[in-house]
Amino acid sequence: MSAAVALDALDLAALLCSRVCHDLISPTGAIVNGLEVLEEKDSDEETKTFALDLIKRSAKTASVRLQFCRLAFGAAGSPTAQIDLGNAQTMARAFIEGEKTKLAWNLPAALLPKNRVKLLLNMLIIAEQTIPRGGTITVDAIGEGESMGFRIATTGTNARIPQTLPALLAGTSENGSVDAHAIQPFYAGLLARACGLELDLKAEGDAIVIATR
């Protein structure tokens, strides 16, 4: 049976910081490895070229993840700030799209309260988890204006709902606690409720859908 999760502000901040650090460890570690190769006196030109390419790709990945996390988890201006959905789309594409995953963005050009945009980006992170082998993520609007909600559908091979996600979105867990791995969907639920919304995660035919209501 699920129990409500109670986190104080310090624990929530610490777990979110751990989540962001987790996203950055891999590319920053690769940069360090590439620099170490360049410093080796016996490295041949082919090895140095490979190391430079690794550093460039990893630096780009780290930058993309930092920008996305800054908006998805950060303060992003004043409490009443609005964010351009066009900027959110640019960050989302850079963060999500790759050889295996494509993003179909059907939202209109608009300025929305920052918490709604943060919620959208966190919903995208959750949506990506439902297609571990890649696929298509389709983002549509529910309603319009500042009260706009979102519907995100994913399709792909072995699309599924991770077992713990629905409870975490509702603010509960099996033992009433969360760790750094589980904090992101829990935080998404907090954002939704701060916007006066709830999140539904369910299968619809071959698709997995996460939507506000």
Give me the CATH architecture, please: 2-Layer Sandwich
Beta content: 15-25%
Q: Find the structural class using helix and strand composition.
A: alpha+beta
Q: Give the N-to-C terminal Cα separation.
A: 24 Å
Order of strands, main sheet, comes to: 3-5-6-9-8
CATH-level-4 superfamily name: Histidine kinase-like ATPase, C-terminal domain
Question: How is the biggest beta sheet arranged?
Answer: 5 strands, mixed
Helix content: 40-55%
Kindly provide the name of the CATH class: Alpha Beta
Shape: globular
Q: What Rg is obtained from the alpha carbons, in whole angstroms? A: 19 Å
Overall pLDDT, averaged?
A: 94
> Count of helices?
6
Total number of domains: 1
Q: How many extended strands?
A: 9
Give, in order, the helices and strands: EHHEHEEHEEHEHEE
Low-confidence stretches: none
CATH topology category name: Heat Shock Protein 90
Descriptive account of the structure:
The chain is α+β, with helices and mostly antiparallel strands and 213 residues long. It has one domain: Histidine kinase-like ATPase, C-terminal domain (Heat Shock Protein 90). Helix content is 49%, strand content 20%. The chain has six helices and nine strands. The protein has helices at 9-39, 45-73, 85-96, 114-129, 165-169, 183-194; strands spanning 3-4, 82-84, 101-105, 111-113, 135-142, 149-155, 172-173, 199-204, 207-212. The strands form three sheets. Strands 3-5-6-9-8 form a five-stranded mixed sheet. Helix 2 crosses helix 4 (114-129) and helix 4 packs antiparallel against helix 6 (183-194). It is globular, with a radius of gyration of 19 Å. The two termini are 24 Å apart. The model has no long low-confidence stretch (mean pLDDT 94).
